Amino acid sequence: MSKVILRKTTRERRIVKINGTLIGTAERPRLSVFRSNKYIYAQLIDDKSGKVLVDVSAEVKKIHEKKTKVEAAKEVGKHLAEKAKSKKIKDVVFDRRGYRYHGRVKSLADGAREGGLNL
Predict the structure, then answer these.
(1) In a 3-state reduction of DSSP, which class is residue 108?
(2) How far apart are CA 76 and CA 1, in angstroms?
(3) Which region, left, alpha or beta, applies to residue 70 given φ > 0 means left and ψ of -120 to 50 means alpha?
(4) Which of 3, 6, 10, 25 is the most interior residue, by most CB within 10 Å?
(5) Which CATH number does 10-115 carry?
(6) Rounded distance, CA 41 to CA 105, Å?
(7) pLDDT at 98 over 70
(8) What is the rounded distance in angstroms from the CA atom of residue 62 to the CA atom of residue 45?
(9) Are 104 and 69 in contact (CB under 8 A)?
(10) Nearest-CA neighbor of 42 among 51, 24, 30?
(11) Residues 11, 116: Cα–Cα separation, whole Å
(12) DSSP 10-76
């Protein structure tokens, strides 16, 4: 008898479980975080219409220059908050995408709070 191959990692299972409870709207979009080995990305998503309202993917490489990953994550959060303020977004739902609330993810959330977002 052959073994069953698990096709989803534990992080992917956590994402599926969390997605049932976190829903972003136009008034309170979802702040989604993606963490790669080198950079960290964030975007504000309206799940009702399926649109990305604000993102910081283009500026991420410039922000990460000559900084540690944790410092850069905080700057990414601040930059996202500034862009969200220009679109009159104050309240967001924080979606950590299955990552632990620690290190770079926590730093990004702190930077967004310092920038003026309510998580």
Answers:
(1) helix
(2) 50
(3) alpha
(4) 25
(5) 3.30.420.100
(6) 10
(7) yes
(8) 23
(9) yes
(10) 30
(11) 29
(12) HHHHHHHHHHTT----SSS-EEEEEE-SS-EEEEEEETTTTEEEEE-TTTHHHHHTTS-HHHHHHHH
Q: What is the pTM of this model?
A: 0.87
With a CB cutoff of 8 Å and minimum separation 6, the contacts of 76 are 40, 41, 42, 56, 60, 63, 108, 111
CB within 8 A of 114, min separation 6: which ones?
Answer: 74, 77, 78, 81
Tens of pLDDT, residues 34-62: 999 999 999 999 999 999 999 999 999 99
pLDDT at 13: 84
Q: Which two tokens stand for residue 43?
A: 């975007």
The CA-based diameter of the chain, rounded to the nearest angstrom, is 59
